[in-house]
Write a sequence for this structure.
């Protein structure tokens, strides 16, 4: 059976895969398994570190979680590390070891020899982590220097002869002895550290060797997610640990990052002139670039994961929410992160809607996008030009935003209007009192706008007002309501 066929045998694993990541998984699984075999045949460690590079919103976390299930279905050992959740740890080695410990627990439980070697690996790993956490060599150096300084101070305090040459000789001798002892201590500590690392790698290697003898599928896969969200020192330490401690036969790391973002974080630590991209390349054997997700797929994913109740929304005829949102976001050329934030504001707005009439998505969506972009749109004839100003921030507008209207009358042909003209028309009607609506408009899309406002007048005001100022459309309150919805943040529900 081919590896690609194996994906089809477990369809539930890749359910809701709108970005085509199942094909990426099939290819990478085959590549990594065969590449480790090739490396071993060439006398190299059968290990590998693969970077999956994709910008935010391109399905990295979805891919890793499903890839893990796919590998586990084929009986591979899979350790999953969420680096961002664990970056409070003193040493990322602890995070990796904990994830591996969970992955190998069934094997360790039933095989005593495997359990012995794994326990030894954990002891050595803990020793390495503790030494790093305490800064052992630094502490030793401080202690050696401190004791030496006490002796120096003693020489200076006891010298009353004013014989500067003798004092200098005594100081030189004391410092020489101090540095000599410090050097011996540091060298011994360095050698012990090397021995501990060697023991760690040996014990992990022996554990995997026994696992293979017992029929366990190898390599061991360690999947690391969210590294680009971590504190830069933790991210750097994680990369160092992966490359230098786990360069062991049959260990494969897959690290999903927004590599550009990670390189910026590292550059912030080492300075603007530091070649952070070149530095990162030292840790990865190869980088696999995900194909960029389209806004359409991204919007469909949002609507599935965090749905909006469509019964509360009024859309132009023959238009569905996904396509309308996608066309608008394409027109503005919004990045995916901005799209998610705008969608979250829109969803919060819908959640709090408690009016009898429906929400008019045509004027609302540009107001939401403007707020997300920290702008405001004038509720007057300049509404459309304000929208275009926002679009130009991202080099747009680049894509047409077209809406088709058909009254249903066989004598009338369908009319197509651009989204900006439609939104502008809606605002131009909405700023007038509802009792003064002009129902004699001839343009198809304007008739639809007037009908929507007429429905609101009937539902909220019974087509009349008895005293005081005439009622205006609730659309004029949208900016205030959007500002309130925009004060919520997060994306958990």
């Amino acid at each position: 059976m081919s590896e690609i066929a194996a994906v089809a045998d477990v369809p539930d694993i890749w359910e809701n895969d709108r970005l085509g990541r199942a094909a990426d998984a099939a290819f990478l699984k085959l590549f990594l398994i065969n590449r480790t075999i090739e490396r071993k045949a060439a006398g190299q460690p059968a290990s590998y570190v693969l970077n999956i590079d994709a910008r935010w919103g391109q399905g990295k976390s979805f891919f890793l979680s499903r890839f893990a299930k796919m590998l586990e279905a084929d009986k591979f050992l899979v350790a999953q590390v969420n680096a961002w959740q664990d970056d409070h740890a003193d040493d990322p080695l602890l995070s990796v070891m904990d994830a591996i410990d969970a992955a190998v627990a069934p094997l360790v439980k039933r095989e005593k020899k495997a359990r012995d070697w794994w326990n030894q690996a954990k002891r050595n790993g803990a020793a390495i982590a503790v030494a790093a956490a305490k800064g052992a060599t630094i502490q030793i150096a401080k202690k050696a220097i401190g004791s030496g300084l006490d002796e120096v101070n003693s020489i200076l305090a006891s010298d009353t002869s004013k014989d500067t040459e003798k004092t200098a000789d005594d100081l030189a001798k004391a410092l020489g002895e101090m540095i000599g002892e410090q050097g011996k201590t540091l060298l011994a500590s360095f050698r012990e550290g090397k021995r501990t690392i060697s023991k760690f790698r040996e014990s992990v290697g022996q554990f995997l060797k026994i696992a293979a003898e017992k029929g366990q599928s190898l390599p061991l896969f360690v999947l690391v997610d969210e590294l680009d969200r971590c504190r830069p020192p933790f991210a750097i330490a994680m990369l160092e640990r992966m490359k230098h401690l786990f360069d062991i036969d049959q260990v494969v790391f897959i690290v999903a990052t927004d590599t550009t973002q990670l390189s910026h974080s590292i550059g912030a630590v080492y300075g603007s002139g530091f070649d952070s991209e070149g530095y990162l390349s030292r840790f990865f054997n190869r980088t696999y670039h995900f194909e960029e997700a389209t806004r359409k797929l991204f919007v469909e994913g949002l609507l599935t994961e965090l749905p909006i109740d469509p019964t509360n929304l009024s859309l132009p005829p023959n238009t569905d929410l996904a396509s309308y949102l996608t066309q608008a976001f394409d027109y503005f050329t919004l990045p995916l992160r901005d799209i998610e934030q705008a969608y979250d504001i829109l969803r919060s707005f819908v959640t709090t809607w408690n009016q009898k009439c429906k929400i008019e998505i045509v004027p609302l969506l540009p107001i939401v996008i403007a707020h997300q972009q920290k702008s405001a749109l004038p509720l007057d004839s300049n509404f459309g030009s304000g929208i275009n100003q926002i679009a130009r921030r991202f080099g747009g507008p680049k894509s047409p935003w077209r809406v088709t209207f058909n009254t249903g009358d066989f004598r009338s042909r369908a009319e197509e209007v651009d989204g900006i003209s439609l939104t502008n028309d809606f605002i131009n009607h909405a700023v007038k009192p509802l009792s003064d609506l002009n129902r004699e408009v001839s343009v198809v899309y304007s008739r639809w706008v007037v009908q929507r406002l007429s429905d609101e007048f009937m539902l909220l005001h019974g087509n009349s007002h008895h005293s005081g100022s005439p009622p205006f459309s609730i659309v004029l309150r949208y900016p205030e309501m959007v500002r309130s919805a925009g004060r919520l943040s997060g994306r958990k529900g």
Observations:
- The longest strand covers residues 217-225.
